[in-house]
Fold this sequence. Notes:
The structure is a single chain. By secondary structure, this protein is mainly alpha-helical. It has 9 helices and 2 strands. Strands 1-2 form a two-stranded antiparallel sheet. Helix 2 runs antiparallel to helix 4, helix 2 packs across helix 6 and helix 6 runs antiparallel to helix 7. The radius of gyration is 18 Å and the shape is globular.
Amino acid sequence: MITQKRQIKFLEKKEVEKLIAKIKQKGARNLRDRALLTVLFSTGLRISEALALEWTAFEEQGRATMELPIIGKGGWQRVIFFSPEALKSIREYLKTRDDLLDEQRLFPITSRAAQIMIKRRAGRAGMGDKHITPHTLRHSLATDLLRRGVDVRVVQEFLGHRSIASTQIYTHVTNTQLKNIHTKLYK
């Protein structure tokens, strides 16, 4: 008996880049949205994890990359890694914040507000026909990592999955790639 695997929704890396590139680089809200989208895609954080980040963790200037321990789903601790693009976006956004003494959260919005923002940004980027959520960016990172040949166990660690079975839902994409390569080999 063959069981149906859960289909995940993800964006190609170029689509994520397009989504982020369509956001203007001026204005506090634009810079916040760019930073949040960049963080979600480069770290694989769940939206609740991203919204729990505190800006004080990013005070140190001049670091090209950064790793940060977080407590994720189920109270499980893991280390997340911020890309140079994510750190640059965060630093640009923090320059616009005038509430830092009153608000510790890096992104002081609700998860629902983040969902609405991403939907609007997708529409403005010409991707309104796709159902894009914060979790779509997490799926997109996992898919991109597997396509680049990163071991599924490493992707499991990046995402903070306790079970490898949770991570294996992304392998359908690499299985398709294997099939295509196999087909080309025997034509």
